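Retro notes (design track)

What went well: tokenization of the new backbones is finally stable.
What didn't: we kept losing track of which sequence belonged to which structure.
Fix going forward: every design gets posted as structure first, then sequence, in one message. First example under the new rule, 916 residues:
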């Protein structure tokens, strides 16, 4: 009877070979084995020299080597023979593996030598190349090369220790697993594995050597629970790793209940990176457009530098829309994208012409950014948003677009010459008011600037600098073409008639001299010349009919040609800074208040070089007139009329306070608080003016109280009195018996603040959002984040962050203006007062309510309001959006998976009510 011996503490104990195993309590039993056995002896035993084969067969004192932890003497033991010996060469069998298998088990490992089988008990683990298998029970048969892993039962009869297979990045969780090490095929029962964002659960699974998977009786879901909230049930499924999950006919099952929704086949992409494919449309119901499919289309990936997204919408009442969104990028050079949208909206019955209307609209958006390192000294960027005024009316429903009635575009190019004072910029700008339908376009616009140079300053200064060393001269040239028109005349002759072109040249000469130590004396000389290509002449026409009951109005004509006007001035300025501080007692929490004043006084003289650029405009029947320039609509400005010998004055103030602070770790225990960041007044007095020598006073103030409340305010005060029709009189207000420095003709104040829960996670996320909004980058991934951020801002109900318990943003604005209407001479007063607020709060950890709205105090009514309610359904999310008041009222409810791969699988029900 053959025996095998166990080495333990250097003592040999003979035991029957059938029974024993190597059993160790904690720590685990470790070892390694190869599929090659020699006469029933595992390869990891100590080999006998090849020259003594007879004794090797008969020797009954072979010593199998167990795990290193079980060796108690000082002799090092190796579990794998990898060296070479000149005395012998180990003989390997033909079915040997090309790599060792390492193994361990907490309870025990049993080797049945005649059957060539291994048994592993207690949290067993084996590793072979990139395959890692763990289970409570495992056994390996050398003859077949099959490793089997199963669960075990606890004292209550419940299974535990499910097999876990990680094969080259693919993970499987199952009840029973059989893996053939030779063929690398596997049969898995009741398994669950993850592919990308999706999970596949199968009753039976076959794994092929190429890592492809065939499943029988499967469920596909993006829910990560053991019992998912929803899944697609399919009889057969195939998984091509890192590419696709393909299934035959599938049925949607929710909470274990089958639904009537069947699909003939399904393809779930799991490819990382760019992949062309179909974009599934979403079903909607619109009260005005009918039933429809939205946002369906196709994505075309054309490599690392270009891709294209095509989307379309179609409705049962005949409306449709198409959108093309190409993006392009070249790493370290540039990045951009464009959106071209066309829509055809139909309302009513075409057979009844009085009730039928159609609107054809378009929208063009383009953004381009250039990497600053691509061409040092050159920058090019574009942000274009242009379209018809009705596009938002019929095609956009989000809150941000509804409350924004202005569109703007900007395309700019700039170049600076390194080491030289030259700079060049060129741009195209566009602004559009969707309410008034006014459009303003400036193109082309160009500016060439020569920075201030000091011609009398030596390259190497020796000794003390002279006053003329600081004499500087510069140049600024501006070319601008602009036109303002209604969007209905775009591209027509009326638009080109209103086109204004002009050039302005400016040559400033200045230098500064410190005087009396604390003062700065700055003389200056400036000359400007204006070139125009068109005159604008406005004249009173008593026969012009404005309405049925009114005659008389202003006619406007244009006269083309070349016209020039000039302006020159010289002046000096003196400025300084004065500091004052008041300190409180030692026991006061307020330590000190510091006041900084920065007064400025300047004197300017300007001859009258622009007299021919002005004329008398009569604007009423009783011949009331006002001086107006022929170039009022000029794109480069207009020179001032009349001689001027004026003194300008200004005073800026800053107020700060120091208080006691327990949080300050320094010895002073003081904290600085800004009471007023700035407040002041400025104006001028013209000694040579025929009338109204004193200018209006401009006052302003700004502060940020407690780093929480931003306040800005400003106003204009007119020191002259007016008559009953609002015309200024040559008398000061205080001469009329009023105790006042003047009349308030315009004023504005704005306050804004933000509050949110003090949760650390919420603050961190808000900072990350602000960083994304303010950061600039040309990286494609970053641009994708920006587009996702825009979607979050536009659809807050579908992108709710439940980690922020509550937040509230408030802003208030008040504006006041009082002026004279030039065409009629009447006085008009405009007051606008508006409060906007938006925020959200969590009713429970899974329910959130939010609102975006405002209140117009002038009209005493709520502004456009959007209320949304969101519910976190674990792997799904429900959002309810409600626009309860206004011209465009809307209600919609959307339920969609959170997973990006199933984002288009959404259920939407919406109703829209137009109050046309």
């Amino acid at each position: 009877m053959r025996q095998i011996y166990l080495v333990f503490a250097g003592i040999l104990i003979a035991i029957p070979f059938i029974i024993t195993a190597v059993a160790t309590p904690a720590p685990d039993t470790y070892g390694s084995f190869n599929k090659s056995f020699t006469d029933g002896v595992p390869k990891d035993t100590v080999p006998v020299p090849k020259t003594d084969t007879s004794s090797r067969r008969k020797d009954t004192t072979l010593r199998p080597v167990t795990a290193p932890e079980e060796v108690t003497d000082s002799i090092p033991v190796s579990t794998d023979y990898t060296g070479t010996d000149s005395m012998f060469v180990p003989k390997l069998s033909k079915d040997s593996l090309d790599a060792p298998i390492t193994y361990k088990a907490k309870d025990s490992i049993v080797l049945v030598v005649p059957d060539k089988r291994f048994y592993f008990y207690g949290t067993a683990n084996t590793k072979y190349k990139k395959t890692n298998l763990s289970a409570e029970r495992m056994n390996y048969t050398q003859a077949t090369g099959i490793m089997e892993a199963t669960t075990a039962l606890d004292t209550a009869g419940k299974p535990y220790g499910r097999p876990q297979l990680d094969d080259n990045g693919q993970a499987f969780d199952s009840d029973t697993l059989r893996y053939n090490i030779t063929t690398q095929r596997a049969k898995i029962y009741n398994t669950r594995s993850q592919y990308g964002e999706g999970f596949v659960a199968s009753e039976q699974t076959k794994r092929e050597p190429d890592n492809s998977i065939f499943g029988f009786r499967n469920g596909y879901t993006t829910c990560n629970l053991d019992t998912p909230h929803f899944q697609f049930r399919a009889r057969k499924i195939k998984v091509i790793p890192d590419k696709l999950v393909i299934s035959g006919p599938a049925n949607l099952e929710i909470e274990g209940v089958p639904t009537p929704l069947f699909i003939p086949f399904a393809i779930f992409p799991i490819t990382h990176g760019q992949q062309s494919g179909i974009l599934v449309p979403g079903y909607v119901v619109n009260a005005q457009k009918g039933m429809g499919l939205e946002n369906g289309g196709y994505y075309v990936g054309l490599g690392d530098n270009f891709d294209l997204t095509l989307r379309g919408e179609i409705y049962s009442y005949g409306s449709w829309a198409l959108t093309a969104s190409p993006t392009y990028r070249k790493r370290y050079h540039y990045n951009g994208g464009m959106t071209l949208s066309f829509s055809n909206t139909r309302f009513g019955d075409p057979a009844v012409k009085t009730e039928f209307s159609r609107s054809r609209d378009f929208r063009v958006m383009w953004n381009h950014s250039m990497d600053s390192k691509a061409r040092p000294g050159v920058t090019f960027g574009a942000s274009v948003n242009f379209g018809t005024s009705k596009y938002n009316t019929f095609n956009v429903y989000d809150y941000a677009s509804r409350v924004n009635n202005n569109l703007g575009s900007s395309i700019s190019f700039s170049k600076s010459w390194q080491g030289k004072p030259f700079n060049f910029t060129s741009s195209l700008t566009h602004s559009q008011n969707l309410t008034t339908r006014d459009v303003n376009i400036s193109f082309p616009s160009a500016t060439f600037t020569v920075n201030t140079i000091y011609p009398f300053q030596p390259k190497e200064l020796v000794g003390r600098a002279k006053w003329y060393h600081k004499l500087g001269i510069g140049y600024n040239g501006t070319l601008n073409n602009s036109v303002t028109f209604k969007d209905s005349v775009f591209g027509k002759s009326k638009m080109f008639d209103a086109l204004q072109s002009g050039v302005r040249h400016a040559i400033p000469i200045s230098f500064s001299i410190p005087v009396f130590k604390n003062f700065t004396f700055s003389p200056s000389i400036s000359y400007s010349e204006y070139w125009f290509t068109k005159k604008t002449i406005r004249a009173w026409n008593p026969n012009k009919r404005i309405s049925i009951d009114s005659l008389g109005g202003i006619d406007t004509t244009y006269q083309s040609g070349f016209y020039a006007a000039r302006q020159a001035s010289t002046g000096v300025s003196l400025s300084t800074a004065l500091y004052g501080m008041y300190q409180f007692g030692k026991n006061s929490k307020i330590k000190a208040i510091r006041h900084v004043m920065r007064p400025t006084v300047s004197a300017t003289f300007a001859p009258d070089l622009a007299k021919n650029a002005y004329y008398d405009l009569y604007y009423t029947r009783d011949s009331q007139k006002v001086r107006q320039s022929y170039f009022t609509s000029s794109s480069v400005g207009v020179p001032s009329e009349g001689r001027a010998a004026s003194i300008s004055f200004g005073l800026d103030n800053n107020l700060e306070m120091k208080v006691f602070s327990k949080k300050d770790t320094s010895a002073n225990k003081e904290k600085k608080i800004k009471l007023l960041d700035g407040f002041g007044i400025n104006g001028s007095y013209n000694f040579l003016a025929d009338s109204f020598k004193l200018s209006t006073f401009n006052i302003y103030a700004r502060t940020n109280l407690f780093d929480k409340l931003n306040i800005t305010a400003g106003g204009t005060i007119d020191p002259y009195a007016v008559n009953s029709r609002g015309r200024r009189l040559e008398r000061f207000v205080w001469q009329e018996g009023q105790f006042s420095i003047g009349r308030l003709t315009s004023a504005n104040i704005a306050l804004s603040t933000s509050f949110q829960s003090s949760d650390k996670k919420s603050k961190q996320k808000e900072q990350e959002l602000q960083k994304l909004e303010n950061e600039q980058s040309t990286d494609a991934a970053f641009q994708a984040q920006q587009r996702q951020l825009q979607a979050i801002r536009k659809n807050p109900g579908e992108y709710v962050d439940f980690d922020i318990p509550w937040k509230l943003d408030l802003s208030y604005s008040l504006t006041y203006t009082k002026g004279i209407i030039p065409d009629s001479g009447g006085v008009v007063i405009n007051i606008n007062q508006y409060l906007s607020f938006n925020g959200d709060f969590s009713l429970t950890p899974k329910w959130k309510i939010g609102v975006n709205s405002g209140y117009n105090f002038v009209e005493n009514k709520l502004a456009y309001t959007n209320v949304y309610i969101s519910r976190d359904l674990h792997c799904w999310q429900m959002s309810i959006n409600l626009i309860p008041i206004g011209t465009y009222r809307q209600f919609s409810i959307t339920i969609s998976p959170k997973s990006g791969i199933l984002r288009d699988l959404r259920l939407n029900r919406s109703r829209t009510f137009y109050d046309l």
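Added context from the reviewer: The mean pLDDT is 79.
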